[in-house]
Fold this protein.
Amino acid sequence: MTILSIAQNEDRARKDACGILSEGGLVALPTETVYGLAADATNGEAVARIFEAKGRPRFNPLICHMSGIAMARRYVEFNAMAERLAETFWPGPLTLVLPLKADAAIHPLACAGLDTLAVRVPTGFAQGLIAEFDRPLAAPSANTSGKVSSTTADHVAADLGNRVRLILDGGPAAIGLESTIVKPTKTGIELLRPGGLAAAEIEAASGMRLTRSTEAAPAIEAPGMLRSHYAPGAHLRINAQTAAAGDAVITFAGKAIPGDEHASIVLDLSPSGNLREAAANLFDFMKRADTAARNQIVVAPIPKEGLGEAINDRLERAAAPRV
C-alpha cells in the first residue's frame, strides 16, 4: 500500500493511478462525497477485485463514475429529465440510475445483473483522472462492506490496508455523505438513496416531487439500499433521549443528552445546528465514537429536513439489526 498526497505531487498521483488502473488494480481516491475504491469499470477482473477487497455482496451494484455527460452517453440512455438533472447538477453529488445501452462496455458485474447503471460525475481531481484514463471508474466507498464510509485517506488505510495498492490523499471529503441516487422514469423521479444533494434541490430543478419507496424491503437497484449498512462495531442507538456510563454520545446543535456527563466521549456534529457541517462530520464522528465507546453509541435526534434526510438514512441503516 502506498499513500500519495495529491497536493504535494498531483502529476505523479494521476500518473501512478492511471498506471495501476490500466493494470486492473485498485486505487482509493478522494471525491467530494466520500473516498472511493476505484477500478476500471470495463475490466471484469478489476471490478471483481472491488467486491473481494470490500467483502461486498455481488448483488449490490456499483456506481460508475464518468468524466462528463459525453462519456456517460456512451454507456447509458438519457431521457429529457435525466439530461436536465445532469446538466444542472454534474459534476456533483447526484447519481442517476439509467437504462444501460445494449453495446455498453461496462462489465456486467458492476451492474449486478441489472439492465440499468448508476452513473455520476465527481468534481475536482477525480473528474480529471477519469478524463485522462478515458474509461469509467466503478468506485463504491473505500471501506469494508457494510461499515462506516471513509472520508479521509487515514480512514481508508486503517480499514482496507494492503487490500488497495494506492491511496490518493486529497484531504477530508468536503460533503462527507455519499451521493444522492435517483431514477428518472417516464412518469417521475424515484429517490433511491438520499445523500449529499438535498431532495428539495432536485425537486426545485426538475419541477417534480420525488417519489420514495414505501416497501419494507425494496429491490436493490442502487448502492446504499441494504437495510443494514454504514455500521460501526459498537451497537448504535438513534434518537436517544438519555445516555449511560460508558456510552459514546453524538449530539447536534449544542444540545446535551441527560447522562452524557458519564459518557466516554461526547461529539457534537454541529454546535451551531448546521446540517451541512453535520453531514461532513458524520462518518468521522461515528468512527471516533466507535473507538471510544465502552458500551454503545447513542445519537441525539437530528432534524430530517434538507441534508438531515440523508443523515438520518445513514443512522437508521447503521442502527439496523446486523445480518
